[in-house]
Specification:
single chain, alpha/beta, ten-stranded mixed β-sheet, elongated
Length: 240
């Protein structure tokens, strides 16, 4: 099956870039048991498509790649959330910073996996206040992938660790202001953490993991990009 074709299998449907709204409507009626919908670089009216999905009667668990035109930012969180309370996975391109996080937290109380990507120059960044509000309202969050325009500090890492006790995966990109102390708090207090990725120009000495067996027991992937790692850090990992 070619990459330009619509794929519908195992409860998942993928819409390529120029899928007409009328086609989406027909497919939603045909596949009434869909649990996952993914848009592949969709270039149509995504707002119209999302409202159509929200009103379709589907009980979705996953909605992926809601990439929309940066000049048409109305994603209708409230309408989707009011009709799909069981949504567990959401990935989309944002642009309104903390406002996006507040709307997501209020609209999808059962969200477990959240991925936000702020592309383009005309975007508002995510801050500690937005992360704290979101994490306080999404206690069951398992995975979070924050934007490369998330200007957060150690406060966000503390909020995620304290408010989301089941957190397993976290990815943080450059332009953040986190420090070794914040990272150390996260990895030592997030006992279910399996994957940690950060892109940051900083030096890490120990991570504070000496004797923390729970950290190594669950961790499966550790990626530190542009991070200056000391010998002490490697020793602390080996001895933990």
């Amino acid at each position: 099956m070619g990459s330009d074709q619509i794929i519908a299998t195992l409860g998942i449907i993928k819409f390529p870039d120029y899928t007409p709204i009328s086609t989406i409507s027909r497919l939603l009626q045909r596949f009434s048991n869909l649990k996952k919908i993914r848009f592949c670089n969709f270039r149509g009216d995504l707002n119209e498509a999302v409202v159509l999905i929200a009103r379709s009667g589907l009980d979705l668990e996953e909605l992926i790649s809601l990439s929309y035109d940066q000049y048409k930012r109305a994603v209708w969180y409230e309408e989707v959330g009011s009709n799909m309370k069981n949504l567990k996975v959401l990935k989309y391109s944002g642009g309104h910073g903390d406002v996006d996080l507040v709307r997501i937290a209020d609209s999808f109380p059962k969200l477990e996996e959240f991925y936000i990507d702020h592309e383009g120059v005309y975007t508002i960044t995510v801050t500690d206040e937005g992360v704290d509000y979101m994490s306080s309202n999404l206690k069951g969050l398992l995975k979070i992938d924050l934007s490369n325009r998330a200007f957060i500090t150690d406060k966000s890492l503390v909020s995620l660790s304290k408010n989301c006790p089941l957190l397993e995966h976290i990815k943080i990109y450059e332009y953040n202001k986190v420090t070794e102390e914040g990272i150390s708090f996260l990895v030592n207090n997030s006992h279910h953490l399996k994957l940690f990725y950060i892109s940051k120009d900083l030096k890490i000495d120990t991570f504070g993991v000496n004797g923390s067996s729970s950290f190594l027991t669950n961790l499966r992937s550790l990626r530190l990009q542009d991070v200056d790692i000391s010998d002490e850090f490697l020793f602390s990992i080996a001895e933990a």
